[in-house]
Amino acid sequence: VWRARRTIALGAGWILTLLIPAIAFPLVTYMADRYLYAPSLGFCWLLAAGILAVGDRIQARPLRLALVSALMVVPLALFAIRTGKYLPVWRDSASLWSHAVTKSRDYRVYNNLAQVWIDQQRWGDAEKLLMHVIEETDLGQARNNMARVRIQQRRWADAESLLTGTSPRDN
What pLDDT is attached to residue 171? Predict the structure, then answer.
């Protein structure tokens, strides 16, 4: 009984202990998945303990082995399927930020997708996103990126006004 409780306490403690920094000191980030890697080890520990506890209730060794094996395959298969569904999202920066735009209202995400499009010389697409960001917020990075687009469009006065914070007619 103590061994089982100790195993549960270790798994739960692992999760809580490693989640506390992310919860207590939240960082502004777009994709916070990386903060779940270490706590997920505690989840896996609890899952394995549960599977072994179910297996301990079966007396016949061949049946116990089959049951434990089947119970291990189920979460593995589910995790593999879920990972497979996310592979296209992580294919490249454009697919990652395009997906993030559908999930987030943070304007830095839009700015980062625009940055990818600038790198791909998709000036019109980048311009539309950056206009949206600049209209909604005063994100300096978006203004700098829009200035890069304006330079490529040879709209020098617009680029200068974006960089200096003045209107084109003030120049």
Answer: 44
